[in-house]
Structure formats: C-alpha cells, structure tokens
Design a protein that fits this description.
Among the domains are: about 80 residues, Cytochrome Bc1 Complex, Chain D, domain 2; about 90 residues, Cytochrome Bc1 Complex, Chain D, domain 2 (Orthogonal Bundle), CATH 1.10.760. Strands 1-2 form a two-stranded antiparallel ribbon. The longest helix has 28 residues. It is mainly alpha-helical and about 280 residues long. It contains 11 helices and 2 strands. About 5% of the residues have low confidence. The chain is about 55% helix and about 0% strand. Helix 5 crosses helix 9, helix 7 crosses helix 10 and helix 9 crosses helix 10. The cytochrome bc1 complex is composed of a cytochrome b (QcrB), the Rieske iron-sulfur protein (QcrA) and a diheme cytochrome c (QcrC) subunit. Pfam families: Cytochrom_C (PF00034), Cytochrome_CBB3 (PF13442). Its main location: membrane. InterPro entries: bc1_cytC-su, Cyt_c-like_dom, Cyt_c-like_dom_sf, Cytochrome_c_Oxidase_Subunit.
Length: about 280
Amino acid sequence: MRPRVPGTRKSSAAAPSRNTKAARKTGRRHPLATVALLAIGLGLTGGAYAAFTTTTASADTPQAQTATSSSVAQGEKLFQANCATCHGMDAQGTVNAPSLIGVGAAAVDFQVGTGRMPMQMQGPQAQEKPVQFSNEEVAALADYVASLAPGPSIPEQKYLDGKGNAANGAELFRINCAMCHNVAGAGGALTEGKYAPPLTGVSAKHIYEAMITGPQNMPVFNDLNISPQGKADIITYLKYIQNNPSPGGFELGSLGPVAEGLFLWIFGLGAIVALTVWITAKSN
C-alpha cells in the first residue's frame, strides 16, 4: 500500500470544488440564451397576433365563398378587359387606382354591383350609375379578386332578411351612421365635393357590404365595432323607415330642421304677406 500523503485528500477535494464554482460562474448563461429568449418571445407574439387577426378576419367574412376555377378564369378575363387599365394587370394598383389585393368579394360586389365601377369619370368619388355587367359577371369578378388574397366575403342571407331588431338598429345607426347619412338615411354633403349617398332603395346586401368594406369616405365597421346581428338590425331599421310613411306628414326630404325652417319662411311668411296684400286691396 502506498503511504498516505498528508493533505492529499483535502487538496483533491478542494480542486473539484473550485472547478465547480468556476463552471457555475462561467456557465451561468449561455451566450445564445438571449437570442433564444428573443426568438421564443417573437414567436409567441407573432402567433398571438396571427390568431387574433384570423379571428377578426373570419368575423368580418361571415360566409366563405367557394369559387370554381371557371368562374375565377372568367373573372380574370373580365378584369383584364375592363379594370386592368386603372388597377393594373395583377390588381396591384396604379397611380390612378388603389390595389385590390385583399379587398375581398364583398368590395367588388358592392362597387361593381351598384354601377360605381368602372368609373364614368374621375372625381371626388365614384358616382352610382346603371350596372355595366350581368349578375354572373359581377360574381365572376368578385371570385377572381377574392382568389388573390383573403378579404371580406359576400354576407349570408340570414343577415339580410330584414327580420332584426329595428329599435336596436335605430340606436346603432344614430351612433355610427347618422352624422353622415342623416338619421333617416337621406344622405348628406361632406367636404371637398364628397357626399354620403341616401340609403333609400339600396339593397340589404349592398348596405351590409358597405359596412364591412368602407367604400369611398365611409369607415369600415368590422365585427368588433358592430356585430353581424347589429348590422342586420341596422338594415331592419332602414327598411322599416323606408316602408313606413312619416308620422308627422310631409317628410320634406327628411333633411331636418333646415328644410322645415326654410319651408316655414317661404310658404308661411309668403302666405301671411299674400293675406295682408289681399286684405289691403279689399279695404281700398
């Protein structure tokens, strides 16, 4: 047996301890740990954002439109023949017109289905005019644009039947729409030659599509602003006031106190002046 050297065990035990401390000191955090943490954080943030935007997009597109390849091909031909001059061959926009990537089928159905597109002439906003395409061609154009990128789709029929809550629709309309369209939906003037069009005679589908796409100067009311049922209630309210006459008599264009005051000044005072002239003539 080899003789024990005094202090050998102590020194050998102390050495690993010093090595362990050194390892702990130098290996407390790996140099790539910060990068890994940043990558994990960005991944979680991106995933949460993607989930949120997907939920919002699906809420704004209540009906997933299934387009056939033939309909998309027909729409592409129509687009290149009638729309590409302004919007570009790939619908990515030009200096004269915006991009249509991501506007969805609802925007095309509204703009083309109301005759606003193709535009008759350049101006502050597109004018409504007779529709230039058949219903099948409008649907084909909508299918083609919808195939380019996800966007708001044509609403489901259950939101367009006019069987919602008219009272709730009236409240939502007064809060969100009346400042431009008038409380009775009669329309009104805006700035720089623009205007909010009257809503009488507009189909329920186009009213809904306008709310989810925001044409011209109109803001977009997604489902986080106004729920699909809320939009249906607004449509119900508009159809109610359209189908029921004014309880006060003459509507005078439903333009409010300005039109009513003008009516009184012209006809009321005019009648008083005419009566005064008639009395004076009789007394002479």
